[in-house]
TrEMBL record:
FMN binds at residues 77-79, 106, 128, 130, 156, 227, 249, 282-286, 305-306. Keywords: Flavoprotein, FMN, Oxidoreductase. Its EC number is 1.1.3.15. Residues 1-356 form the FMN hydroxy acid dehydrogenase domain. Glyoxylate binds at Y24, R165, H251, R254. The keyword Flavoprotein applies. GO terms for molecular function: (S)-2-hydroxy-acid oxidase activity. Signal peptide: none annotated. GO terms for cellular component: peroxisome. This is (S)-2-hydroxy-acid oxidase. Belongs to the FMN-dependent alpha-hydroxy acid dehydrogenase family. The lineage of its organism: Eukaryota, Metazoa, Chordata, Craniata, Vertebrata. It catalyses: a (2S)-2-hydroxycarboxylate + O2 = a 2-oxocarboxylate + H2O2; 2-hydroxyoctanoate + O2 = 2-oxooctanoate + H2O2.
Length: 356
């Protein structure tokens, strides 16, 4: 089966993963309106291509936090890659390394941060972090990833509680016994109560607030990026609290249903930040022209979540490489067809919002 676009990988994964695993990855919160709108919102945005611009040579390279990446698409943090492919996050890390882009590894990985680093020692990686009731858990993770050479902390801020994912409740989703949240190996051995996505229920701290950003800054010299901002008000607060970046994200539509699509939030956040810190986004990226639209609206880089899991389900590391390569090739083509030779030439003049 020739894999031509990201939808092909989705179809393959849907056919080959077991139902509970597919439902877990596909799930949105409640009625999945926000999950679905993340994709539909791109179709409401039209491009204004410029012609006769000599696009015989094009350059997709970009930088994030001063580091070079081959093209402005990274891998968003998603949990439990071993559910899709036996090597799990190790395969994902190798794919990101081979395509020279950023991989944000999830706290909820089925491989440890040490295993991920050993598998792709030259990869450019950030670490996604939650704040736990037991602050020591967060603290220990920070020190581990710092020592391993991770380049930034990505603080996920949209999960004071887990969203209501109906299919997971119906399926009574649990990690199979042979898989663990490897970053917490040995930590929760005493727990005999219920667990939620591989850790004891109520491990996350719903009291998390802006003061915890200062607490994190007191623990580490690593840049801090806040993932889960959707409004200009919170973007301004992020800048005031001295973070280095924002990921505009609604958690793939898995948290608050009825919130906006991420691409629809991007402009107001970019306009508020005004270049003081970098702005990235995730949610709904499925084609190279989606990437182009997001970069034109001011994102420095976009991150993909579910498509990486589909790539893993298809062929592990090779599948993830194919997903990334297809997006890179489509992005390069969309750039050229729009008259852009490099990232610097992509700007908001390229965008026409449709009247739908």
């Amino acid at each position: 089966m020739a894999m031509v676009c990201l939808n092909d990988f989705e179809e393959y994964a849907k056919m080959h993963l077991n139902k509970s695993t597919w439902d877990y990855y596909a799930a949105g919160a409640d009625e999945c309106c926000t999950r679905d709108d993340n994709l539909l919102a791109y179709k409401r945005i039209r491009l204004r291509p410029r012609i006769l611009r000599d696009v015989s040579v094009s350059d997709t390279r970009s930088t994030i936090l001063g580091s070079d990446i081959a093209f402005p698409v990274g891998i968003a943090p998603t949990a439990f890659h071993c559910l899709a492919w036996h090597e799990g996050e190790v395969a994902t890390a190798r794919a990101a390394e081979s395509l020279n882009t950023c991989y944000i590894s999830s706290t909820y990985s089925t491989c440890s941060v040490e295993e991920i680093t050993a598998a792709a020692p030259n990869g450019y990686r950030w670490f996604q972090l939650y704040v736990y009731r037991d602050r020591k858990l967060s603290e220990q993770l920070i020190h581990r990833v710092e020592a391993l050479g991770y380049k930034a902390l990505v603080l996920t801020v949209d999960v004071p509680y887990t969203g209501k994912r109906r299919d997971d409740i119906r399926n009574q989703f649990k990690l199979p016994p042979h898989l663990k949240v490897k970053n917490f190996e040995g930590v929760f051995q005493e727990n005999v109560g219920p667990d939620e996505y591989g850790v004891p229920t109520n491990t996350l701290d719903p009291s998390i607030s802006w003061k915890d950003v200062y607490w994190l800054q007191s623990l580490t010299r690593l840049p801090i990026i806040i993932k889960g901002i959707l409004t200009k008000e919170d973007a301004e607060l992020a800048v005031e609290h001295g973070v280095q970046g924002i990921i505009v994200s609604n958690h793939g539509g898995r948290q608050l249903d009825g919130g906006p699509a991420t691409i629809d939030c991007l402009s107001e956040i970019v306009d508020t930040v005004q270049g003081r810190i970098e702005v990235y986004m995730d949610g709904g990226i499925r084609t190279g022209s989606d990437v182009l639209k997001a970069i034109a609206l001011g994102a420095k880089c976009v991150f993909i979540g579910r498509p990486v899991v589909w790539g893993l389900a298809y062929k592990g590391e090779e599948g993830v490489r194919e997903v990334l390569q297809i997006l890179a090739d489509e992005f390069r083509l969309s750039m050229a067809l729009s008259g852009c030779r490099n990232i610097a030439e992509i700007n908001r003049n390229l965008i026409q919002f449709s009247k739908l």
